[in-house]
Design brief:
The structure is a homodimer of 213-residue chains. Chain A is an all-alpha fold and 213 residues long. The first copy, chain A, has helices at 4-34, 37-44, 48-55, 58-79, 88-105, 109-119, 125-151, 160-176, 178-185, 192-211. Chain A folds into 2 domains: 1-56, Homeodomain-like (Arc Repressor Mutant, subunit A, Orthogonal Bundle), CATH 1.10.10; 60-211, Tetracycline Repressor, domain 2. The structure holds a DNA duplex (30 and 30 nucleotides).
DNA sequence: TTTTGTATTAACAGAATTGTTAAACAACTT
DNA sequence: AAGTTGTTTAACAATTCTGTTAATACAAAA
């Protein structure tokens, strides 16, 4: 049995956490404008005054969610770069697979991030500065590795950024367009698990054939 | 010089049209929830009462836009199927190219439609019924054509729907992620026109290599 | 036991937004 | 010119939503 102090702390953390969970769900599915603090509070099982007590404003609550989601998005994006210790073709193959899995476990993430950036570009300008320098160095290395592999005749010469965009396109669009495609594709998408496995294989195949000599 | 009757009619049509134009812009960039009827009215140069006079409610104004955009989306999607009178490889190549061009001329369209369907799926259930029968017949034909081309050794055997999804992914994601990618990709995307030409070529290449034996 | 800080509720305030209405107005018809 | 019709404006009504506050409960610390 927990003592009262611990229980209190837990209960507080639970309320805060439940608000955050409810907020995540609301913001990811409805966006900032569509989300309602009253609706979040209700889903979390607290009065809306409590929500303001813990997070002050809708804006601040939203930023808590945004921060985490942008971090996750960056993480998943890096997964697409693959493990530089592997031979190039393996690196790309596992990069595509890992990225697909990452997006599959966070299917609402890309649309949320994209919508956020489309609707308030100014707000994220600072992120670009930071991200760009990272990306520039990572890509220089990746491009050099690709160039060497191409010289060795292991794969075709290709622009690393273009290849990267193709991987992102194939993997992310699968989940962004899911609600749009699912009712149209009938049997192909009837069994979710099977479809995702097939789609993953298809995306890998598409990328691998792109880099094949 | 126009007579007064014509001028009136034109002015009315202009006001209505200007509201529609402003509404399209507002809804496509901010979504239904983020859009403000007052802001639309202001952009159209009319009082907000006028907007209600012409379109009654925000909802009805929105539906005017949605109807047109869904129609356009269907049209652009069909473009990806290509011209069935062409030999298979040419059909696919021009299908990808035409679809890319279509999306390029309506860059905000896919994200708008996807967001709409994600946020209010019930509302568009009826569309699916209609679309699904069309798609089923079109695909049966397309798949048969692909199968025949594959038997003749012109291309690999591939699931038509999977190929179609890849084309949509590569072309649409280019524009959906544009604001997200542009600040990160530096020189590659610095010149819009050039980047789009390169991206189009890359998408075509990716699809063509996918179907090559 | 008193004090102190935190958690919670209910009621309310303020702002923004959508939508309505009555009256003025303009143009056309007869 | 009078009436008819459709357009426009300004003011207002109603609602919804965010955020605040005052009162209260309650547990821990002193």
């Amino acid at each position: 049995m927990l003592n009262s102090k611990t229980m209190d702390t837990n209960q507080k953390q639970n309320k805060e956490k439940e608000i955050l969970t409810a907020a995540e769900n609301e913001f990811l599915t409805k966006g900032y404008d569509g989300a309602r603090t009253t609706s979040i509070a209700k889903a979390a099982g607290v009065t809306h005054a409590m929500l303001h007590y813990y997070f002050r404003t809708k804006e601040q609550l939203f930023e808590r969610i945004v921060d985490e989601k942008f971090r996750l998005m960056a993480e998943s994006t890096l997964a697409a770069l693959g493990d530089s210790s592997l031979p190039m073709k393996e690196r790309i193959r596992t990069g595509v697979a890992n990225h697909f899995d990452f997006v599959a476990s966070n299917p609402l993430l890309p649309l949320f991030v994209i919508n956020e950036i489309v609707s308030r570009p100014e707000r994220y300008a600072f992120l670009h500065e930071r991200a760009k320098t990272i990306i520039d160095t990572v890509y220089r290395g990746l491009q050099a590795d690709i160039d060497r592999a191409a010289e060795r005749g292991e794969m075709v010469q290709i622009n690393a950024k273009m290849l990267f965009m193709s991987i992102m396109s194939l993997n992310i669009f699968t989940f962004i367009a899911y609600p749009f495609m699912k009712p149209l594709m009938g049997d192909l998408m009837a069994n979710d698990e099977r479809f995702l496995a097939e789609r993953k294989a298809e995306n890998i195949e598409t990328i691998m054939k792109r880099i094949e000599i």
